[in-house]
Amino acid sequence: MLCVIYRSTKRDQTYLYVEKRDDFSRVPEELLKGFGVPQFSMMLNLADREKLATADITKVRQSLGEQGYYLQVPPPAESLLNIHLNDASK
Question: How do residues 70-84 score in pLDDT, each as one tens digit?
Fold first, then answer.
């Protein structure tokens, strides 16, 4: 199972996985508007891998099969105030 990964030009650390290079036909138009112009990042064979660096490979495979794309977004930023309050209460 091959997939192609594109980097967002509008959102830092956001990636779009699709089944075929430059084929965004199954990606919703609104998602592409918010994503910006996709910048080719890499092509991967998911059949040869057991895991990915920051995405759940099972979710990626499932989403590609069902929707034709997978959107990887960065984890939410940690609140420094909450970290400080948690450390202070210890």
Answer: 999 987 766 667 766
